[in-house]
Design goal:
By secondary structure, the chain is of the alpha/beta class. The protein folds into 2 domains: 250 residues, Alpha/Beta hydrolase fold, catalytic domain (Rossmann fold, 3-Layer(aba) Sandwich); 135 residues, no CATH class. The protein is built from 13 helices and 11 strands. The chain has a 9-stranded mixed β-sheet with strand order 1-2-4-3-5-6-7-8-9, sandwiched between helices. A two-stranded antiparallel ribbon has the order 10-11. Helix 8 links the parallel strand 7 and strand 8. The protein is elongated.
Length: 470
């Protein structure tokens, strides 16, 4: 069942994603930069392709930097073109490459594998003419904030590490916070944020549909010996910008590494791009001073002038705390959720199906209560509608703060689902009374009994998912 669900959702989410094994056409670059196409091998010998950008006036023996993507299957190298151009104008050779799609999807990925891909790119950049092989570092954005430290901890060939919007939290904890932050930013509050979205991610992780959910970055950070520049925008809505930096610094210092610089940029989002609306919209331009900081910092550390535990910039805004996400208990596990879902769907669909069969066969129908019809229809709408809406928030709109119209802290869709759920509970009580009074021998007692059982399961299920909470 896990494979079927993963295949269906992956097909919808990954349709049209390019394969990393296919070389993309060389990107267009400004006239003041030169480019060179490079091929290298990633983890497992996967052929990978990239472009090196460098200033036309670059001196021999200049530094280089490899850019590691954030999350996304087969992300093309052009996604990081703005960063590559700006960093190259600071005197660096910059390698950008197409991210793999082989072995990587919404439900499958390995940070270790991605780190080996990055190491292949580092090796390719170190061999480029004019680049000092002792001065090549790595830059990681978002998911790359987990990947780049793994690569750095494995290789002395990496001279420095630059992290942007990095995560020092477990991936599942970061992701639940990100979607919740987007909803809160849109004015949503209550059980949709506190209960439904949180529990959905726990269920996905327990069912094997969220890759590397409890990866712990602390030990990897403790193994990083290179100097580190860590950058966050003050309006980051995808990584907790106040909780993460101290955890990253703690991890580095636990390994004895105090050669780090932490810098915050005002009016900048998760990728340190400018944002006009507190992180909801990302503009193409980098935050003012960001590229210059990378250039000057790299020049210093590759010349042996290492920083010592520097933190500067405006205090970031964090809309809510990121809370731990423990594995679910047995009764709230993915298996238990699937069992409850199957029972409710059977109970709520069996009632109208039996009625339709009787009608086709010309069998005289027993009296039908409106409550039974309401429970059958309302239960189906509540169960299927809530899951569809939650998946919509997770896969498309939640982290971008797009839950639809909001009234009194509740999206209208969610309010409607809550009203239907409440009506379904009331209908369960009436249907249960009708079942107790039924004594005929035409199977109606069984049909009402199954429907009542579905309603009884629905009650705690709806409380767990927040449909019956204010």
């Amino acid at each position: 069942m896990r494979r079927i669900l993963a295949a269906l959702l992956a097909a919808a989410c990954l349709l049209g994603t390019p394969a990393a094994a296919l070389a993309a056409p060389p990107p267009a670059v400004p006239a003041d930069l030169t480019t060179a196409e490079v091929d290298f091998h990633g983890a497992g010998g996967l052929p990978m392709h990239g472009t090196v950008l460098a200033p036309t006036s670059a001196k021999p023996g200049h530094p280089g930097i490899v850019l590691v993507h954030g999350a996304g299957t087969g992300t093309p190298r052009t996604k990081l073109m703005e960063e590559a151009v700006q960093f190259a104008r600071q005197g660096l050779s910059v390698l950008i490459y197409d991210k793999r799609s082989v072995g990587y999807s919404l439900f499958q990925r390995s940070y270790s594998q991605l780190a080996d891909d990055a190491l292949g790119a580092v090796g390719a950049l170190r061999r480029q003419p004019g680049v000092d092989s002792r001065k090549v570092g790595i830059w990681g954005l978002s998911e790359g904030g987990w990947v780049a430290p793994i690569a750095a901890s494995r290789s002395k060939d990496i001279a420095f590490v630059v992290l942007v919007g990095a995560n020092a939290l477990q991936p599942l904890r970061q992701q639940t916070w990100a979607v919740a932050a987007g909803l809160l930013k849109a004015g949503v509050s209550g059980p949709l944020v506190d209960r439904a979205e949180f529990n959905l991610y726990r269920t996905l992780a327990d069912g094997g549909l969220f890759p590397e959910p409890w990866y712990e970055p602390g030990p990897t950070l403790a193994a990083v010996r290179q100097p580190v520049l860590a950058i966050w925008g003050t309006a980051d809505l995808l990584t907790p910008p106040r909780q993460t930096p101290p955890l990253l610094a703690r991890g580095l210092e636990q390994g004895g590494n105090r050669h780090y610089t932490i810098r915050f940029f005002a009016d900048a989002d998760h990728a340190a791009h400018r944002t006009p609306d507190g992180g909801v919209t990302r503009l193409p331009q980098l935050a003012p001073g960001y590229a210059g900081l990378v250039g000057s910092w790299v020049a210093d550390v590759t010349a042996g002038r290492y920083p010592t535990a520097q933190v500067s910039g405006p205090t970031p805004t964090q809309i809510s705390p990121a809370v731990p996400v423990p594995p679910p208990a047995w009764w709230e596990s993915a298996a238990a959720q699937v069992a409850a879902l199957a029972l409710m769907l059977l109970a709520f669909t069996a009632y109208p199906v039996v009625a339709s069969v009787r009608r086709l066969r010309g069998v005289r129908r027993p009296p039908v209560t409106r409550a039974a019809r309401l429970l059958s229809a309302g239960g189906l709408v509540s169960v299927l509608g809530s899951f569809c809406y939650l998946f919509y928030l997770v896969l498309t709109g939640g982290k971008l703060a797009a839950p639809g119209p909001v009234v009194a802290g509740r999206p209208l869709v969610w309010l409607a689902l809550q009203a239907i759920a409440l009506a379904s509970v009331a209908a369960t009580v009436i249907t249960a009374k009708a079942w107790l009074r039924t004594r005929d021998a035409r199977g109606e007692r069984v049909r009402l009994g199954l429907l009542t059982l579905g309603g009884l399961v629905f009650l705690p299920w709806a409380v767990y998912w927040g449909l019956l909470l204010p």
